[in-house]
């Protein structure tokens, strides 16, 4: 079963870590503690190749926007970029800069 998640959005910020802390603090205040950005593998596991757009099971994850979502992983081949998973295409991209505004789907361990 995929990790429990809640869609939130991050706005552009010069420091991704500062913005990440703000989003995680807000989630903790509103939803309880333990929230984090998913790993690339965790977010990729939610992609449904057979689903229509968005490329995710809409019964389990309703109201998912068909846009790129941040992972918590830096691209080790292009260190200025972070990985994202796009639920419009179902593809993973390691080309986004931390100051760009992407959707966030937080997860927490059970």
Q: What would you say this structure looks like, in words?
A:
There is one protein chain. The chain has 110 residues and is an alpha+beta fold. The protein is built from 2 helices and 6 strands. The protein has helices spanning 16-31, 40-44, and strands at residues 5-9, 35-36, 68-74, 82-86, 92-96, 103-108. The strands form 2 sheets. The protein has a 3-stranded antiparallel sheet with strand order 1-6-2, with helices on one face. A 3-stranded antiparallel sheet has the order 3-4-5. Strand 4 and strand 5 form a beta hairpin. The longest helix is centred in the first third of the chain and has 16 residues, at 16-31. The N and C termini lie close together (11 Å). Residues 6-14 have low confidence and may be disordered.
Write the layout of secondary structure elements.
Blueprint: E1 5-9, H1 16-31, E2 35-36, H2 40-44, E3 68-74, E4 82-86, E5 92-96, E6 103-108
Antiparallel strand pairs: 1-6, 2-6, 3-4, 4-5
Summarize the structure in short:
With 110 residues, this protein is α+β, with helices and mostly antiparallel strands. Helices cover 19% and strands 27% of the residues. The longest helix is centred in the first third of the chain and has 16 residues.
């Amino acid at each position: 079963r995929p990790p429990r998640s809640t869609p939130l959005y991050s706005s552009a910020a010069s420091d991704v870590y500062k913005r990440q802390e703000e989003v995680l603090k807000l989630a903790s205040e509103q939803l309880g503690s333990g929230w984090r950005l998913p790993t690339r593998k965790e977010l990729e596991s939610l992609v449904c190749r057979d689903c229509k757009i968005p490329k995710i099971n809409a019964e389990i994850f309703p109201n998912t926007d068909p846009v790129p979502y941040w992972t918590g992983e830096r691209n080790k081949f292009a260190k200025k970029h972070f990985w994202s998973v796009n639920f419009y295409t179902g593809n993973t991209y390691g080309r986004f800069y931390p100051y760009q505004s992407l959707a966030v789907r937080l997860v927490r361990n059970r």
